[in-house]
Amino acid sequence: MTDQSMRGFLSQLDASGALHRVKRRIDPKFEIGAVLALRDRGPAILFEQTGSLPVVGNLLVSRERFALGLNLEASKLDDLCIHALSYPIKPVMSDSGPVQEIVQSGDIDLPAALPVPTWFERETAPYITAGVIIAKDPETGRRNVSIARLRLEGGSRVMAGIAKNHHLNLLAEKAKALGRRLPIAVAIGNHPAVLLGSQLYLGLGDDEFDNIGGMLGEPLKLVKCKTVDLEVPAEAEIVLEGELDPEEQIEEGPVSEFHGFYVSYGAGMGGRITCVTRRKDAIYQAILPGYASEHCLLGGIAIGATLRQALHRMIPAVRRVLITEGGMGRLHAIISMHKPKRGEGKRAAMLAMGQVNLLKLVTVVDDDIDIENPREVEWALAARFRGHEDLMVVEGVKADRCDPIHENLTVTKIAMIATTRPGDGEPLSRSEFVNPPKDVINRIAAELEQY
Asked: Which of 6, 13, 100, 410 is deepest in the core (most CB within 10 A)?
């Protein structure tokens, strides 16, 4: 099997000069977040002296960095996600794994054990932001893998900030109805495939570990937890074992969201950690929250892949979907289509907004446009978009609570269809770029360095 650890990826980054080491002592309270923010698009950063374990951040700040971690070209990233959705591989159990080299149970003091950063000025405590949370449906036993923010409350106590419609919250509500608490395991320091797979938009009961195997091209290796009936990646750095108590509500106060503003969601769900397992030389992984590249991309790439698969099933002309970073990795999408029929662009936009509730601006272009190039997308709007016919504005649509400008949980959603139509510009077509003869341009391109 291949290396399924985060540290294998760190070695790749180090070899390519994309890992920066901070050797001076740094305070996890605000300082780690400040450095990561100021070097948001730069190298991954390993803080070697934090008072406890080393901390690494800014690992996945570009699509190219995701591709490197998954050992493929950046242009193949979306295809890999689609392949993983279509051809999942179930995980396999291991008798042991490096994540359980050290086991600590009993009295757990999380603030002393882990260098969890306090990120922003108005947030009241440290937040675990790269913890992949594993839980099981208390009725069916089916596994769920996701990420939610976990705030340290002192000692072994935590608070989970979970949106009401997220699967983890639905499982906790099921446990509450049965008079139980919900066992969880939190894996920290994961292979890029584990992080990306945890963000896929799947159905309740679908196991993200299967799709992670599809990304890896082999089964993900798991080990049984020590104190809860759950399985975790064997090559993670750290695992926290415990439970969420849906009866315990803890007021959260101001917290950062992907759009970069503070929000106040009210009470989060309380919980306790009863066991910590880790590698002997564990590295704590952190993801800078708020409007940061890694935070936006992690959600955006996963949403784009699942949306592309859903749209292509209904409209075969759909080729790609990009959830943009400028749209916070959640709110704006660009869809490319191959020779769409009249009206198909509008249909694709409407289906996209129905499939992903967060989307509120969708741009549709032809597949001769590179949707990762904002200049080309803007060119398509200038050359092919007819405002009086191709602009869709739908007012008063139900919004997600995290939309930064919702009013009473509604927003206005917009679509712009910037595609050609059959017969556009006849006898000269707006889909044909001006070029020298094809044989000449190909010959010159092959020998361009000689000119």
From this structure: 6
Beta carbons within 10 angstroms of residue 25's beta carbon: 11
Residues 6+ apart with CB under 8 A from 289: 119, 120, 127, 129, 149, 256, 258, 295
**Alpha carbon of residue 372 to chain centroid:** 17
- Distance from CA of residue 1 to its chain's centroid? 25
Confidence class for position 435, pLDDT limits 50, 70, 90? confident
- State pLDDT tens for residues 150-182: 999 999 999 999 988 899 999 999 999 999 999
Question: To which residue do tokens 């499982």 refer?
Answer: 171
| Structure tokens given for 282 | 């564990």
**C-alpha distances in angstroms, 323 versus 244, 290, 301, 308?**
32, 17, 7, 10
pLDDT at 285: 98
- Strand ranges of the sheet holding 332-337, from the earlier edge strand across to the other edge: 318-323, 332-337, 361-366, 410-418, 391-398
Residue whose C-alpha is closest to residue 82's, from 326, 356, 313 = 313
User: Reduced to 3 states, what is the DSSP secondary structure of residue 227?
Assistant: coil
Which alpha helices (DSSP H) does 257-373 contain, by range? 293-314, 344-355
Contact at 8 Å (CB) between 332 and 303?
Answer: no
Contact 315, 348 (CB under 8 A): yes
| Residues contacting residue 28 through CB under 8 Å, at least 6 positions apart | 50, 51, 55, 115, 116, 117, 118, 126
From 96, 93, 90, select the one nearest 226 (Cα to Cα).
96
